[in-house]
Amino acid sequence: MTLTPLPPDAAPPIRPGPVQARAPLPDVLRGLALLGILLVNAQDFAGFLEWTQTGLDRAVQVATDVLANGRFISIFAMLFGWGAAGLLARQGAGIFLRRHLTLLLAGSLHYVLVWHGDIISLYAVLAIALLATARMTARGLVTLAAVLGAWWLGLGLLDGLAALRGGLDAPRFTGLPALSPGDTYAAVVSGRAADFTGELIGGSLYNGAWLLALFCLGAAAGRTGLLLRPHEHLRLLRGLTVGGLLVGLPLGALLAWLNTRGDYASGLLAIPVRMGGGLASALGYVGVLGLLTVRGRLGPLRALAAGGRVAMSNYIAQSLIMTAVFYPYAGAQFGQWGAAAAVGLALGVGLLQLPVSAWWLRRFGSGPLEWLVRRAVYWK
């Protein structure tokens, strides 16, 4: 049997087993992304509507939209693609499939037992498509990402503009879970279990092209060594910083304005604006942190690396804490808090996780869920 050689910019395979050496930039980015995602998800956990916020709550919502909304989920998705593509190149399809089946199981349990906003299961399913990109060059991956991303954003923009032109007099959709005072844990879990398969399929079909575009960008970063050897890519990092922020920040301001409006068309338009501007700002943030890494000026931002190293454990812990505060079977605060209080709580939880993560790593060397996943994938 003749094997087709890997392209020159693809990583060669190495012996099976988890990666031992770590570069700082990916972990810092992952830790920052995890914190930023929690700030945005505070709206879903707490059950407030963006367009009804006033005073300090509105100011916090605007800041969240401009600086965080769509930004950190884009970084997280690109890092997922970076890690998945790297795993495939190093360990082969067998380990790759075993890991993503394990993540699918973990994400399914998270969705059903804890929180309806799980992304682990969706990422695990869509990552299988990366098998078809294993021998693509970085240039090919970026081209594929551009095609998929432009198609997805274009369709979303057309839908929003059609609703705007049609003058559809309909209220904005909320996307919030259907929770009522007095709901028991058993009832909530039963409802999520009934919805899970349909939501996973629907999410894969609706978000698939966009998430695959982000995965491909992450895979391209892996091919070029952008995150592991940022000193070799100074010109690119400067371009990402300037171009990403010049595009992303104005789109963030537009998103903030759309999120003051409660009509259906604004809700539709907010989706491509959120994700398109989010990707631009995300690339800008990668550029900034990459340049700081090269110059040895990460400073306090290095503390984010501990959170990034135990990202899965922290992600699930965030869901447990926030649902314990807000969901009707526990703290029952759903719908009672505005943006300022909810985002403030999320910020406190996310920052507290950093020293806890550092302590845990010093004591055990790996997060608890990371350890379980590694055992399931590598059987050791």
From TrEMBL:
Pfam families: DUF418. Keywords: Membrane, Transmembrane, Transmembrane helix. Residues 221-380 form the DUF418 domain. The chain crosses the membrane at residues 72-93, 113-134, 141-164, 209-228, 240-258, 278-298, 310-330, 336-361. PANTHER family: INNER MEMBRANE PROTEIN (PTHR30590:SF2). This is DUF418 domain-containing protein. It comes from Deinococcus aerolatus. The lineage of its organism: Bacteria, Thermotogati, Deinococcota, Deinococci, Deinococcales.
